[in-house]
């Protein structure tokens, strides 16, 4: 007997955005999350256990391969009536977006929650890359008008500080991702009341992964900030859309469906990717392992694959031998956009493109564990795109695809609060 996928996904999302995205890197699924400040690569582990039953998904007969039908996009449960009236602003909160879009959503959520709690005006952040001097304005990547409008009635937002206020006078305050009301009251608000203005820096501690799931006045605010504020500015969005359309065109034999694989050679070459983790599971998979995994779960040679690797590397040849329609950004980006969006290795534009294509692909395969996987999964679930396959070493010549669905797409993720209806 069939099961309504929308009902299943709605059940999955009965949780706060703090919990849903935070639990995506908790020890139930990953291990040894390394504290970084402000943000950084997260060295974690896959849980490739059997977490989903056959009856929970609907497969399509169209095309070749084990493609799954998308569910309906979920509607947010927060409304303007969810929030109390905005108080008179008592100062300013500033922050920067760092380390790529998978961190941006969490950094925005924490900043909005803090600003609302202390009654401050939030200043539009800048965007900073990993290299010194690699800075961009918010509006170069994201839609600033959408950001401001989405927070209307929640907090006050300004694009710049008044001319008579210097950023040098701000107190720098570190806050953990998924910052709680208790933490703000005890460690942030006193500094804000004393100094009048603060600059936030979010960090991602492993000790913060098993917090309780009780309702909080900040839940709706955090949900809105994570899912309702960040949209790409028109030019970047146009590039992403054109690349997705190109991938669909190349996927004619599978009815326009394609797979996105988060596979970056520079990460795979690090020592942390060699061998297994503490629980015996691998932290990342190389091109050969991904190719064999996809074949064994049923995808055929005509399947189109998008890699988050920007430019081709010899180590990827074996993947292309098995799946000839394997592409990087360099091979499918419009020629007139390459100079700007592929200007340097590891640029913010490249990370943003990978994040949004991975979020909108028909299937997502996280070859590397970490926050990118976690927040792409959260965005996909909200969109009804629940086919996320966790790779594994599979003995023999084939395997049931249902044994490799992400732990986030399972019946055990039932908690007390919903961001989506």
Describe the structure.
- The protein is α/β, with parallel strands linked by helices and 421 residues long.
- The chain folds into 2 domains: 92-228, no CATH class; 234-419, 3-Layer(aba) Sandwich (Rossmann fold).
- It has helices at residues 5-12, 17-23, 101-118, 138-141, 144-150, 181-195, 219-227, 234-250, 265-268, 287-296, 317-322, 329-332, 338-341, 348-360, 371-383; strands at 92-94, 96-98, 121-123, 126-128, 135-136, 156-158, 171-176, 197-203, 258-262, 304-307, 326-327, 363-366.
- The strands form 3 sheets. It has a 5-stranded parallel sheet with strand order 6-3-1-8-7, covered by helices on one side.
- α2 (17-23) packs across α15 (371-383).
- It is elongated.
- Keywords: Carbohydrate metabolism, Fucose metabolism, Glycosyltransferase, Transferase.
- GO terms for molecular function: mannan synthase activity.
- InterPro entries: FucosylTrfase_pln (IPR024709), GDP-Fuc_O-FucTrfase (IPR019378).
- Belongs to the glycosyltransferase GT106 family.
The CATH class of the largest domain, by name, is Alpha Beta
Low-pLDDT stretches: 1-62, 207-213, 411-418
Taken as a percent bin, the fraction of beta residues is 5-15%
Number of strands: 12
Strand order of the largest sheet: 6-3-1-8-7
Query: What profile does the largest beta sheet have?
Result: 5 strands, parallel
Architecture (CATH level 2) name of the largest domain: 3-Layer(aba) Sandwich
Number of H/I helices:
15
Separation of termini? 24 Å
Helix/strand order, N-terminal first: HHEEHEEEHHEEHEHHEHHEHEHHHEH
Percent range for helical residues? 25-40%
- The CATH topology assignment of the largest domain is Rossmann fold
What is the molecular shape? Answer: elongated
């Amino acid at each position: 007997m069939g099961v309504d996928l929308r009902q299943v996904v709605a059940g999955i999302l009965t949780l706060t955005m703090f919990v849903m995205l935070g639990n995506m890197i908790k020890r139930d699924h990953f291990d040894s999350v390394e504290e970084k400040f402000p943000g950084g690569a997260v060295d974690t582990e896959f849980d490739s256990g059997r977490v989903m039953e056959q009856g929970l998904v609907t497969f399509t007969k169209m095309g070749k391969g084990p493609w799954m039908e998308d569910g309906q996009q979920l509607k947010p449960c927060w409304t303007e009536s969810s929030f109390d009236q905005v108080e008179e602003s008592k100062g300013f909160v500033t922050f920067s977006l760092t380390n790529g879009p998978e961190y941006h959503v969490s950094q925005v959520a924490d900043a909005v929650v803090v600003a609302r709690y202390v009654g401050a005006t939030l200043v539009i952040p800048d965007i900073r890359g990993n290299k010194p001097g690699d800075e961009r304005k918010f509006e170069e990547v994201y839609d600033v008008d959408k950001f401001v409008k989405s927070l209307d009635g929640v907090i006050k937002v300004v694009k710049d500080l008044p001319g008579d206020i210097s950023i040098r006078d701000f107190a720098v305050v570190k806050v953990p991702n998924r910052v709680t009301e208790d933490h703000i009251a005890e460690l942030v608000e006193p500094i804000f009341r004393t100094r009048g203005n603060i600059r936030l820096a979010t960090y991602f501690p492993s000790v913060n992964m098993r917090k309780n799931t009780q309702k909080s006045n900040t839940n709706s605010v955090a949900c809105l900030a994570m899912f309702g504020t960040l949209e790409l500015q028109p030019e970047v969005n146009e590039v992403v859309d054109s690349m997705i359309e190109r991938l669909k065109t190349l996927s004619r034999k599978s009815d326009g469906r394609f797979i996105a694989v988060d596979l970056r050679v520079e990460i795979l070459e690090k020592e942390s990717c060699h061998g297994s983790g503490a629980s015996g599971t691998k932290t990342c998979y190389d091109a050969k392992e991904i190719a064999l995994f996809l074949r064994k779960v049923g995808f055929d040679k005509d399947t189109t694959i998008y890699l988050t690797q920007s430019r081709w590397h010899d180590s990827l040849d074996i993947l292309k031998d098995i799946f000839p329609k394997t592409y990087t950004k360099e091979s499918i980006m419009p020629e007139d956009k390459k100079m700007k969006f592929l200007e340097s290795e590891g640029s913010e534009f490249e990370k943003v493109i990978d994040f949004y294509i991975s979020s909108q692909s028909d299937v997502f395969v996280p070859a590397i564990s970490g926050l990118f996987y976690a927040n792409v999964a959260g965005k996909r679930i909200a969109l009804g795109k629940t086919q996320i396959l966790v790779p594994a070493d599979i003995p023999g010549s084939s395997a049931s695809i249902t044994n490799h669905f992400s732990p986030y797409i399972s019946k055990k993720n039932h908690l007390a609060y919903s961001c989506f209806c």
